[in-house]
Amino acid sequence: MAKKPPLMRAHLLIGLILAAAAVAVATEGGGSGESGDGELDYKKLSGIIIPGFASTQLRAWSILDCPFSPLDFNPLDLVWLDTTKLLSAVNCWLKCMLLDPYNQTDHPDCKSRPDSGLSGITELDPGYITGPLSSVWKEWIKWCIEFGIEANAIMAVPYDWRLSPSMLEERDLYFHKLKLTFETAYKLRGGPSLVFAHSLGNHVFRYFLEWLKLEIAPKHYIQWLDQHIHAYFAVGAPLLGATETVEATLSGFTFGLPISEGTARLMFNSFSSSLWMMPFSKYCRSDSNYWKHFSGARHSGNKTYHCEGNEFQSNFSGWPTNLINIEIPSTHGFDAYPSITEIPQSNLSSMECGIPTQLSFSAREMSDGTFFKAIEDYDPDSKRLLYQLEKSYINDPVLNPLTPWDRPPIKNVFCIYGTDSKTKVGYYFAPSGKPYPDNWIITDIVYEFEGSLYSRSGNLVEGNPGATSGDETVPYNSLAWCKSWLGSKVNITRAPQSEHDDSESLPGKRTAVWELDKANHRNIVRSPVLMRELWLEMWHDVHPDAKGKFVTKAKRGPLRDDDCYWDYGKARCAWADYCEYRYVFGDVHLGQSCRLKSTSTDQLLNYL
After folding, report:
1. Is the model's pLDDT at 509 over the cut of 60?
2. C-alpha to C-alpha distance for 406 and 233, rounded to whole angstroms
3. What Pfam families does UniProt report for this protein, alphabetically (predicted)?
4. Per-residue pLDDT averaged across 31-52, rounded?
5. What's the confidence (pLDDT) of residue 314?
6. pLDDT-above-90 percentage for the chain
7. How many CB atoms lie within 10 A of CB 142?
8. CA 587, CA 88: separation in Å to the nearest integer?
9. Both ends of the chain: CA-CA distance in Å?
10. Whether the predicted pLDDT of 14 surpasses 50
11. How many Cα atoms occupy the beta-carbon half-sphere of 245 within 13 Å?
């Protein structure tokens, strides 16, 4: 049976998640959503979730008969992710997933569209076995429900993660809808929202803020933001891109699905979003269309792309090492990547006997198209990717997303990410001798870990490693770019930790960086232990009665019934001061019967 928290604890934590990013705003003046004494009324806050890449369900919007399979696709059937249909009818499934690599239209036989609401982001493949394996935001939402958050206080804004930002607006009017979501939440609750974005969702939110500048008069832009957005949680944000994008582009990344790497590459490169998380230099920027729009300057076909002197004086564009080291085959054109039907007639001996040339490419050379131009004669995808790079990113009318972030103009920004995990930061590729899409093979990988760079074989690699490593998916330098948003005094909060330290604010704004030890990129939003640590520290941070430092880890007790468990060594419930054995009909093991004592609800006050 489900465990229910006591009513008193629910009241204590009714605004925990929604008040997490809030700070005392008595010095900011009154306004909508604030109480009479100038403090924000936490009960009026809303939470808006922007999921990451591949974290929204896609449903069929076609009728597709799948030959040689008993399973067909009908309207509203799950496409992403239905592993049963993927296994039994992979060709049909691919038709519903693939997009035209140039104009991003659907396959003639099948189209898919993103699901809506919270159900579209909780479990990608619901089921007794597949549900827990594909769970994304379900645990997070479960916490909200258990702590008494109202149903209308949490909203999800799923999107078609296959599309580039400009196509999201052109096809789905996504950013118009997102603006209406914020305005609806304000009308419904009477106060501003907290934005929770994960992974690619942070890039979506960044683009929205730039798009909004062109939709609202300049004098009303900051006013709109202050009224509708109180805080922004950037969770696992690849602020300078993610290295695994390179792997997915050249050799394929399966995401754990039962498909070949070549099939994964074909699918990934058909999405215009495939380049949205491409690594880029922290030293190079594009000119802003925002100021051109109001200065009356003409819009040219190409934006000016300029780099600081550091880009050419230092190595690797601010990254630990070169992103790509690739051997260029000795043959060009047709012989370099024969198709599957042409492979029997192709003579691959010239590729094997020729002396290849090894080239290296930095993050800047990835994001400005230099790399794709260099391999254009050797790879059929490079021309399509270069087209999308120039059309949907470099020459985007709103923003070139492959440029460094400045701090969003939002009152409170929390940058949260995992650290201290072995993370890929560079690749070595060589021709495989196989036909496209399997024409490249990874010969070595460079990892960052514990302040050093290592090859796949364990040898040390020269470069510029960071103080620590990333979250297994995004390198540390990309995650930690938000440290540049802090003021002159930089205090980084690490969790779990011994006590709580405030971060330094920029004038009129608050910025905090939270580094979570060993938090995996894909699982960070569903880790109960990390969520508990994070919520406890923020509970102390925002409570008006907080006086002392945050309590040490040894004094932190359980918050929920789920935190109680059976200690087999002592033959009793662990956390004896907080938990007791209390059987409820339906419990199937001893740990399930360990529940919080009815008198332990006041223990939250110990954190003040």
Report:
1. yes
2. 15
3. LCAT (PF02450)
4. 69
5. 79
6. 53
7. 17
8. 38
9. 33
10. no
11. 26
- Secondary structure element (H or E) that encloses residue 571, with its range: none
User: Does residue 303 contact residue 286 with C-beta atoms inside 8 Å?
Assistant: yes
pLDDT digits (tens, 9 = 90+) for 86-134: 988 899 999 999 999 999 999 999 999 999 999 899 888 777 556 666 7
Q: Which pTM was predicted? A: 0.84
What is the spatial distance between Cα 548 and Cα 544, in angstroms, rounded to a whole number? 12
231 vs 165, more confident: 165
Check pLDDT > 80 for residue 334. Answer: no
SS3 for 379-423 is: CCHHHHHHHHHHHHHHCCCCCCCCCCCCCCCCCEEEEEEEECCCE
What phi, psi does 275 have (nearest 5°)? Answer: -100, -5
Indicate if the pLDDT at residue 604 is higher than 90: no
pLDDT exceeds 60 at position 10: no
Using CA of residue 363, residue 365, residue 369, residue 371, what is the dihedral sign? negative
The residues near 216 (Cβ < 8 Å, ≥ 6 apart) are 224
548-572 as b/e: b if 16+ CB within 10 A: eebbeeeebbbbbbbbbbbbeeeee
Name residue 70's amino acid.
Answer: P
Q: What is residue 41's three-state secondary structure?
A: coil
Residues sharing a CB contact under 8 Å with residue 44, sequence separation 6 or more, in sequence order: 33, 189, 190, 191
Indicate whether 262 pLDDT > 60. Answer: yes
- Nearest CA to 100 out of 163, 46, 160 is that of 163
**Secondary structure of 572-589 as H, E, C letters:** EECCCCCEEECCCCCCCC
Let me know how long the chain is.
Answer: 608
Instruction: Give the pLDDT of residue 309.
Output: 84
Under DSSP, the state recorded for 139 is: H
What the block records as the tokens of 328 is 């260029």
* E strand or H helix at 328: strand 324-328
Check the CA dihedral 58-62-66-72 and report its sign.
Answer: positive
pLDDT reported for residue 45? 81
347 burial level (CB within 10 Å; 0-12, 13-18, 19+): exposed
406 vs 282, 403, 483, CA distance in Å?
A: 11, 10, 11
Beta-carbon count within 10 A of 10 CB: 16
SS3 content of the chain, % helix, strand, coil (to 5): 35, 20, 45
